[in-house]
Amino acid sequence: MRTREQLNAVIKAYDVRGVVGEDIDEDLVRDTGAAYASILRGEGETTVAIGHDMRPSSPALSQAFAEGVVSQGLDVIKLNLTSTDELYFAAGSLNHAGAMFTASHNPAKYNGIKLCRAGAVPVGQETGLETIKDMLVEGVPAFDGAPGTITEREVLPDYAAFLRGLVPLEASRPLVIAADAANGMGGHTVPEVFEGLPFDLRPLYFELDGTFPHHEANPLDPKNLVDLQKFVVEQGADIGLAFDGDADRCFVVDEKGHPVSPSAICALVAERYLKKFPGATIIHNLITSKTVPEMIAENGGKAVRTRVGHSFIKAQMAKEKAVFGGEHSAHYYFQEFWNADSGMLAAMHVLAALGESDKPLSELMADYSRYEASGEINSTVADQKAATQAVLDALADKIESVDELDGVTVQLKDTEAWFNVRASNTEPLLRLNVEAKTAEEVQAIVDEVLAIIRA
From the Swiss-Prot or TrEMBL record, what is one GO molecular function term (predicted)? Predict the structure, then answer.
């Protein structure tokens, strides 16, 4: 019998995730499929689309989930190998609930499930995961009707055509594109999406391999961008694209091999959408650069600031009827894509902007990069609340204002510099982000705050 404590370690705020064979196995996944199907059946749903990434454990786990779903009388459409945003496309375009088997950027030993309802509406702790957890503890209610059916469907061509319809690239100037798929699902989707476009694609690590033989599929960590940075320069590429394991995030490298801040990408895409939808609302999380709300305002849009995390962003997108939303972590959300995130769609907007310009990417992006930032710095802290308060107490004389939307965001006196300290939802970590006008000021603030946190 599973205990709630065991399940709390696996069923998290936004998804199901754990080490295969220890935290997560076929029996747990089969029961999770049955529990989710039981909930959906009560809501009048009939079908679940299931996709999986290239991890060695993904086919068997997704099959077990499918068995759980059909045991409750719902039908399954197996999409087989898909990126996460391809699964969202299927859930949106087919109007079915969805389940994606992936552990995103985590190492090979992990796997998990991202769930959504019809229309790619996300399922989080408050919208289904807690109920699934209850069922797994108490037992999934039996269903005495006929089991559902399992069919297979390929949606990659439709996904690619849909994206190309949102961001036409046929008229772009020719571009050399270096792309690092990190042996993840970008190797599956990028060739299909770019087929027939005026791009010379130079692939790096496009072979699907869920053991990640070259580097982790986590481009948020600078060490995982190094190969692409070198490759861009060697190939004389106009741009470099780095995808994470399930290809729902995309990081950008300029022609000099320098990483482009995800906040700068947010600002560029926001500006493009405000030209298309004047006066529209754009969502950004509180860690993105101040450049983002500044540029939204300058382009006549309405900026709405939100907490970190895709479930908050997607809920806010729907509530505010926002056309676009961006996070510092390179998650980008689109109203035209059922408010779901797509690294590919963000990359296509950057390619469109570059293809329309005669500038190199480094010059094009300079307009969207007004400040220096630390990036996210993690510290292992036993008492996160006490450490956060210690920072506020020690710096009290230097603080102009504090808000508590997500952790504490501190605006410092007599400067444009600010920092945010927030606790991880899943680990004993405090996360620090700092932004200021100069790299020297950023480093001084980082040193001062970390000295307090790590004391």
Answer: metal ion binding
